[in-house]
Write a structure and sequence with these properties.
Layout lengths: L4 H15 L6 E7 L1 H4 L10 H18 L1 E6 L8 E4 H6 L4 E2 L10 H9 L3 E4 L6 E5 L12 E4 L5 E2 L2 E8 L19
């Protein structure tokens, strides 16, 4: 039986977050090309049904790990991010004005905007975790030191999947000591 898009998303996120659990308030940024998920070129075949399935899986994992979500829009909206207004206010993020649509923002960002309680767009964010579905290039929205996380799920549908976490930068050189729980092996 072929895994569903829902199960691919949920499995990948659970594997990452169980290995690297969030401590305190953390943000997960998601970039997604539903076109790539269905095997088409990015930006050419936005699919709201796929977006709904992906959103549902992410929302379930978000609830289990108490994460804040940020959905990256496509380049037509300058890669702005859909967040809940409470996140925009809590993290003092710069709001920008637009409403994402499937062909101007992306299907997943548009779907998130329609499902959030009080959505808004922000220009940028420094997220702690990342999920890039279909090579949407979310790196600009992650903290400075990004570590790729390898999980069993390598694709969502036909799209490449890349997961990431961040960590504080090491500082001090070869004589410095680092706490063991923070050291990346």
């Amino acid at each position: 039986m072929t895994p569903t898009i829902y199960s691919q998303i949920k499995s990948a996120l659970l594997e990452m977050l169980e290995r690297f659990p969030p401590k305190g308030e953390r943000i997960l940024v998601i970039g997604c090309s539903t076109s790539e998920v269905v095997g088409e070129r990015i930006g050419t075949a936005s699919n709201t049904e796929i977006a709904e399935e992906i959103f549902r899986a992410i929302l379930e994992v978000k609830e289990a790990f108490h994460l804040h979500l940020a959905f990256q829009c496509c380049e037509h909206l300058n890669r702005a991010l859909v967040v809940e207004r409470a996140v925009q206010e809590r993290f003092n993020l710069e709001e920008v004005l637009a409403i994402p649509r499937p062909h101007a923002g992306g299907a997943l960002a548009a779907y998130a905007f329609s499902r959030f309680k009080d959505p808004c767009l922000v220009s940028s964010i420094s997220a702690d975790y990342g999920m890039d579905i279909g090579d949407t290039l979310i790196g600009m929205h992650l903290r400075r030191v990004v570590v790729p996380v390898r999980v069993q799920v390598k694709n969502v549908g036909k799209a490449n999947l890349v997961l990431a976490r961040t960590r504080p930068p090491y500082t001090g050189g070869k004589r410095a000591e680092y706490p063991e729980e923070k050291r990346v092996k």
